[in-house]
């Protein structure tokens, strides 16, 4: 199973900006189907880096339409070596 990194940042103007970014980012990624073993690798006020295990083939699908609900923007999706 491959691990991938997902880097998220806040979208300006969201009501969820009142919550810590690490909480919002972790909740969002845990809500996505098919991703396993979600781990918060790093979080600051501006970015959160999460890693996930992907049992499927190819790259995991990260639905952009759900990012808006959580007040987030994706900045990168990169495969990592494990």
Task: Report on the architecture of this protein.
- This protein is an alpha+beta fold and 82 residues long.
- The protein is 20% helix and 41% strand.
- It has 2 helices and 4 strands; from the N terminus they run βαββαβ.
- The protein has a 4-stranded antiparallel sheet with strand order 2-3-1-4.
- A hairpin with a 3-residue loop joins strand 2 and strand 3.
- The longest helix is centred in the N-terminal third of the chain and has 10 residues, at 21-30.
What's the helix count? 2
Rounded average pLDDT: 85
If you compute it from the alpha carbons, what radius of gyration comes out, rounded to the nearest whole angstrom?
12 Å
User: How much helicity do the residues have?
Assistant: 10-25%
Q: Biggest sheet: strands, sense, closure? A: 4 strands, antiparallel
Q: Report strand order across the widest sheet.
A: 2-3-1-4
Q: How many β strands by DSSP?
A: 4
Which spans of ≥5 residues are poorly predicted at pLDDT below 50?
77-82
C-alpha geometry: globular
Distance between the termini: 9 Å
Strand percent estimate: 35-45%
> Helix and strand string, N-terminal first?
EHEEHE
In terms of structural class, how would the helical and strand content be classed? Answer: alpha+beta
């Amino acid at each position: 199973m491959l691990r991938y990194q997902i880097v998220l940042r806040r979208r300006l103007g969201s009501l969820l900006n009142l919550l810590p970014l690490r909480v919002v980012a972790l909740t969002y990624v845990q809500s996505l189907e098919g991703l396993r073993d979600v781990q918060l690798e790093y979080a600051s006020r501006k970015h959160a880096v999460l890693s996930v295990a992907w049992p499927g083939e190819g790259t995991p699908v990260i639905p952009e339409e759900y990012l808006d609900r959580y007040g987030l923007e994706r900045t990168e999706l990169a495969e990592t070596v494990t």
